[in-house]
Structures are given as C-alpha cells and as structure tokens.
Design goal:
The protein is of the alpha+beta class. The chain contains 28 helices and 24 strands. Its EC number is 5.2.1.8.
C-alpha cells in the first residue's frame, strides 16, 4: 500500500544517510527570480524543484526514471500537503517534536564519526587479517592512572629488561621470572598465533610491523609496558567448521577414569575406521550434549578462537569429511571432522563488519583521540586555569575507591565558576563535578588522584565538545541540514496521509464497498488453473513428495531421538529431558507441526505401561503450552518388538504437518532450493506453468536437469472478483481516490499558480 512506501522511504533515508552525498536542503524559499510554483502565499523556485527531483526522480513502483514534467505533479502535491500540515500546527505538537528528535539522534551518530579514519583502520585490519603472527611478551605492570614517577620507573624497568634481551638473555626465561602477565610462568610469555582484533591494538600493531626475531621498544597499554618479540609470521589459514566427538576427561580424574575415557574414544575411532556412520558414532559416544543434537557440528572459527589442540587438528585436515585421530585437550578426548573450509573473504564483503569492529575494538581509542583533536581544532575553546586549579584541589584518595563526593569538604558555589568556554557557550564547574560523581569507578592501588581527576576533566571537555557539535550540526553541516529538512517534511506528510487517506481507506468499509460497486469492471480473475507444482533433481524425489502429499496431515521425513525407559518405569526423568526439550523446540518453532507420540512396552510389562509413558510425555508437552490438538497418541503396546531389548521400552516421535511448505523445508534442510512445492491458482503466463499443457490431471516434464510435476484439479474460466476477493486491490485504488479528493480540497484552501515560462525550463 502507499502508506508502506512512504514509511519505507523515510527509514531508507536514515539508513543511507551515512554514505550518500546530499544536495543542499529543500526549503520553502522566497527569491527575487521568478517562482516556478506558488501555493497560497508560499513560492518555490526552479532550484528547489530541481534539488527535489534529483533525489526522488526514480518511480516508487519501478526502476523507471520519472520525467521532470511527471515529477512536477508529485512535487506540487507534496508541497501543498506539507503546507496544510503546518497550517494545522502539526509541526508544533509534542508527538511531532519527539519523533523528529528520535530521527535526529539516529542521524547525528552517522555525522559525528570520522568515516575516513574508520575506513583507514578497516583497511589496515583487513590487510593484517591476511597474516597470522606468533609473538611473546613481557609485561611490566603500571596503571594508566599512575603518577608520572611510577610510570617513569616502570618504563625504565622495561628498558633495562630490553637491554638484557639485547645482550642475549632468553626471552622465555625473563618472561617467566619478571612478567606481570598472570599466565607468564606457564606460557613463558608466548601469546601463540593471532591476527587482527585478537589482542590489544598497540601490541597488534608492533607485532605486525616488527621483523621476526626482533624485540620491540616498550609498548604502552592500560596494563603497563610490554616488550614484544615476534617469533613467526605465516599466511592466514582462513576459517574452518568442524564436527567433533568428545569424550570428557577430568584433568584431576583418577588413572582408571582417564584410561576409561581413552578406551571410549579409541572405540569410537575404531568404529569410524571400520566404516560406521559418523552420525551414529556421535550419538553413541559424544559427551558434548549441545553439539550432539547437530551431528557434532560446531560454529565456524578461525585462528585463536579454539583450544590450540583442536585448532591444529582442524587446520591440518585437507579433505571435507576427513577426520583426525583422537586429540587430547583440557576438556577430554576429541575426534575432529572437517565440515567446511573458507579462505578470507574479499574486503567488499567484510567491510561492514570490520567497520563495526574497529569502533568497538581497543583501536577505538585511536578514533577517540583523533575526534578529540578534530573538535579542539574545529571550535574555539577557552580554558580557565585559575578555576581549574581551584577545582583540582578537590581531588583526594576517595576517587581511587570510586566514592568521591565534592560536597564533603567545600561550600563554594561551583555553578557560578566558569571552567571553560566552547565558542561563546560557558560550562560551569558544577557540571564537571557532577560528571565525575556520575562516571567515577574504582581504580588500581597505584592510581594518582590528580591524574585520575585530570583525565575526567579531559573526558568531560571532549564530551562537551561532541555535544556542542551535535547541537549545532544544522549550522555547520549542509548535508545533515538537508536530510533533516527531508525528514521533517516526510513526518508531516505521513501525518496528513494517515489522517486523510491511509487510516480512512482501511477502516471505511462502506466507502470501500461503494468504490467497488462503481468500478467492478476493474476487478477480474483471468482463466486460472487450481494446481500443485513440484520440482526436484530426480524422479525418485518427486515421487516421494507425491506420496507424502497424498494424505494430510503430511508425514515428514523428520524424526528426533526416541527416549528409553527402565523396566516398568513410566515417569520422565532428568536424563530424558534433553530429548523432550528437543521435541518442544521443534513444535514451538513450527506452528503447523503435529507430533505422533508412539509408546511401547516389553512383553513382560503390564498392559498400561506404554499408555502411561505416552501420558507422561504428553503431560510434559502440555505443560509447555503444546496443545493436545497438535498431538497424536499411538499405543503399540508389546507389538513391533525391536531387536534390542532396551528399545522395547521406548517412546518415539514422528512429525506431520498441515502445511506443504513444511514438506519443502524438510527436503531442503541439507541442500537449499533442491525441492520446490507450490500450490494454488496459476495463470497460463505463470513461469512455473508454461512447461505444462493447459488441462486437468497429472503431468511430468523434465527441463534443464530438473523434474517438474503438476496435478491440476480444475481450470476455472475468467470471471469477476467478488468484493472480498478484490478487497486488497480496492483499498489501494480507494486510497488513490481519497488522495485525489484531498488534493482537490487543499487546492481550494491554497490556490496553486504555475509559472508556465519557468515550467518550460524544467521540461528541457
């Protein structure tokens, strides 16, 4: 409907505003040159029209470009509606102001980011992602808030250690002895292989710029000074997805427990080697409950995202579905199977996610510092040193604990003390002191109160500059000013259309029916076939689908793990809840599903045992809001005895569905778009039906290595649509009539004059 088009256009304007260049703003202007258009007392120039045309000349319902003359009528109608909205005071209401403020907040974010620097950092990160670096480090700890003396002492200690390394001391020995990294004693400073975004940006930067074998100068981070040594560098190995079988082993377990775990994983490996199906071995042996539900599959991962042993085993596999020998990790024993391998994607694909990461990653500090510098250069800032000295005296040791309060010791009227000015706007000390109270948090023991307080001041000044820029964006940014003008007009237009067209067209059933009666000749069905169309890669699959569709509800080729009970047991226990939860999740996600719950018993169990098992499973599902109407109960008792005695005491699950789309989903679960099922009415021109003869009955054809089958129930001749059948089209057409009526009324209220000479200019 038209309403949707207006709203989508407004949202799209926000979405693309960060990356498009916008022409100067649309404004209602009075110029000395002849006006193109006069509406009431307002005049609109050729330039204003041209700006609007350049932005909106593509037709909303096609890719066709509107001619200047075609767009002129839309432009004229737009302006008269907006004038009407303003005349009624719609731009002064609280709701309007709140909506514009919300849009402004979203839009301003895109204009307060240094996009060129974000792009530079994104490109840098992508180039680094092409390589993996192995490095070691030694950390000399010192807080970022430490006093200058403590900071200097730590720096000198780092320089001294670097001197020993230059003289030939072993890096690992010194890391184990002196590094403040908590795991250094175990790792000897080894950070392993990593790539972009996997360590602090300053460490990452030096690791990617330093030659292999060299030791860096001290590198500062929040934690202190680091000495970094690059051990190796290699090409990025990409991303892998694996499935695994895991047998848990407690590192603190007994020797017997460890032997048992090793025996189980060896048994699983032997079964795989003998040709046993992977899924069956996962089901029987894996202790990883989460991945076991999905044939052992784990999410895609890259370097540094998985325990090293699994990582090495995964990247060593070269053939999809190939699997490793048992691998021991801190979690237990694993067999790793390769499911998928991907190389690094092109920058054009990765760019959006990289831009998000560089803003939130530790390199975001680079953006913050660059933005602070830009704001300082853009706006005139006058800082009052004397007033700062008076305020700085309030800092004491309580600020290290995060419970500082300026009201404890002083009674000065800080609201009257001007701390600094941005342009001509003054910022008082009270605002800063309240900012500190609001932002403060506990600091490290070696933090200096004076340093902490000064940092709060610098942050407050930077935030004040950012707020000042946001408040004055319309004055300094022509692109932002233009987009905000469009948004304001769009919101007013939406309100006018909702009140006079959209809302009425949807709720005025009498008006809809009257419009239909006046225009019945518009609404007709062509000749149509009521049919089902199926396509698949082969005839066997098509025939299987035909059998499934022959009886409703449709039996789905989808089962879940059955649950087993002990002898004479009927209650659902904790060990069976995982399987039942899976059933619930499937039913919850698929509202058209029906589940058949089949109960069994051993011959030596009482006759009601299987019925009680079914009853308790149904009770569980009912308790989780799966209605009884979506459950079929089948009590097979001691019939259909299984070869394995334990399985005679089971409850199994078979899914059905009322929707043919669910049949399609099941067939496409492993190979998307392998199967298509469509039913309903088809015209002769429908691309799916051009392959078949226009007649009732079943037909099968092969085209482009696909098998197509149809069953045509009947062919209906063309006929007029009833009001109910035509209602959707009627509402759209009724909206157009209401809009036309609105324009006619507004033209009486605001007389429209078109300058023919100026109009000729735009036609050229």
């Amino acid at each position: 409907m038209l309403k949707i088009q207006y709203n989508i256009a407004l949202l799209a304007l926000l979405a693309v505003s960060s990356c498009k260049t916008t022409a100067p703003p649309q404004q209602i202007v009075v110029t000395e040159t002849p006006a193109l258009l006069e509406i009431g007392n307002e005049k609109f120039s050729v330039e204003d029209y041209q700006d609007s045309y350049n932005k909106n000349k593509n037709a909303s319902d096609s890719t066709r470009e509107l001619t200047p003359e075609e767009y002129f009528n839309l432009y004229k109608d737009l302006k008269i509606k907006i004038l009407h909205a303003k005349d009624e005071g719609k731009d002064t209401t609280q709701d309007y102001k709140e909506e514009i403020t919300s849009y402004r907040e979203q839009l301003a974010k895109n204009h307060l980011v240094d996009k060129s620097l974000v792009e530079k950092l994104s490109n840098e990160a992508y180039n680094r992602l092409k390589q993996e670096v192995r490095a070691s480090h030694i950390l000399i700890g010192v807080s970022e808030d430490a006093s200058p003396a403590d900071t200097l002492e730590a720096y000198r200690a780092a320089i001294a250690l670097r001197g020993r390394l230059e003289e030939g001391s072993d890096f690992g020995d010194l890391a184990a002895k002196f590094s403040k990294d908590p795991v250094a004693a175990r790792t000897r400073g080894d950070l392993g292989y990593f790539t972009a975004f996997q360590t602090l940006y300053p460490i990452e930067t030096v690791a990617y710029t330093l030659p292999v074998g060299k030791v860096s100068q001290p590198v500062r981070t929040k934690a202190g000074y680091h000495l970094v040594k690059v051990m190796d560098r290699r090409s990025n190995r990409g991303m892998v997805r694996i499935a695994h079988i895991m047998v848990q082993q407690d590192t603190a377990g007994t020797a017997a427990q460890k032997e048992s775990a090793k025996a189980r994983i060896d048994e699983a490996y032997a079964l795989l080697e003998s040709g046993e199906d992977w899924d069956a071995v996962v089901e029987s042996f894996s202790d990883d409950r989460q991945s076991r539900k999905n044939r052992g599959l784990l999410p895609m991962f890259g370097i540094g995202q998985m325990v090293p042993e699994i990582e090495e085993a995964a990247f060593a596999l070269t053939k999809v579905n190939g699997y490793s020998k048992p691998v021991l990790t801190m979690y237990g024993w694993h067999i790793v199977r390769l499911a998928e391998k991907r190389s690094l994607e092109p920058y054009s694909v990765m760019a959006p996610s990289l831009r998000k990461k560089v803003v939130t990653d530790s390199r975001g500090k680079v953006l913050e510092l660059a933005n602070a510098k830009r704001l300082r250069e853009k706006y005139k800032v006058q800082e009052n040193a004397d007033q700062w000295n008076a305020v700085a005296a309030l800092a004491d040791s309580t600020i290290k604990a995060g419970n500082w309060d300026y009201m404890r010791a002083v009674s000065t009227d800080w609201a009257s003390v001007a701390l600094f000015k941005i342009e001509e706007q003054s910022y008082d000390a009270l605002g800063f002191l309240n900012y500190v109270k609001r932002k403060q948090q506990a600091r490290t023991k070696d933090a200096s109160p004076a340093i902490v307080f000064r940092k709060y001041y610098q942050d407050y000044l930077t935030e004040s500059l950012a707020d000042y820029e946001k408040e004055h964006l319309e004055e300094t940014n022509a692109e932002f000013r233009s987009i905000m003008s469009e948004i304001k007009e769009g919101v007013l237009l939406s309100q006018v259309m909702e009140e006079n067209v959209w809302g009425r067209s949807l709720t005025d059933s009498t008006g809809q029916k009257a419009f239909y009666d006046r225009n019945k000749e518009r609404y007709n069905f062509p000749e149509r076939a009521l049919a089902t169309v199926v396509s698949a890669k082969d005839t066997q699959t098509v025939n299987a689908i035909k059998r499934t569709l022959a009886q409703s509800p449709y039996k789905l080729e989808r089962r879940l793990k059955e649950i087993l009970f002990g002898a004479n047991a009927t209650e659902v226990e904790n060990e069976q809840l995982d399987a039942l939860t899976d059933v619930y999740i499937v039913m919850e996600k698929n509202p058209d599903y029906i589940v058949e719950i089949a109960g069994y018993r051993s011959a030596d169990e009482s006759e009601i045992t299987s019925a009680n098992r079914i009853r308790n499973v149904v009770k569980y599902l009912n308790g989780r809001n799966i209605p009884i109407l979506r459950i079929i109960e089948k009590d097979y008792g001691s019939f259909r005895q299984a070869a394995e005695a334990d399985r005679n005491r089971r409850v199994s699950f078979q899914f059905y569905s009322q929707a043919r789309s669910d049949v399609e989903k099941v067939y496409n679960a492993d190979k998307p778009d392998a199967v298509m099922i469509r039913d309903g009415y088809f015209t002769k021109e429908n691309p799916l039906f051009t392959k078949f003869k226009w007649q009732t009955g079943e037909q099968t054809v092969t085209d482009n290595n696909m098998v197509f089958w149809t069953s045509v129930q009947k062919i209906e001749p063309s006929r007029a649509k009833t009001f109910a059948e035509a209602r959707g089209s009627v509402i759209n057409d009724y909206q157009k009539e209401l809009e036309k009526q609105l324009i006619n009324r507004l033209q009486e209220k605001f007389p429209v004059k078109v300058n023919a000479q100026e109009l000729e200019k735009i036609k050229r």
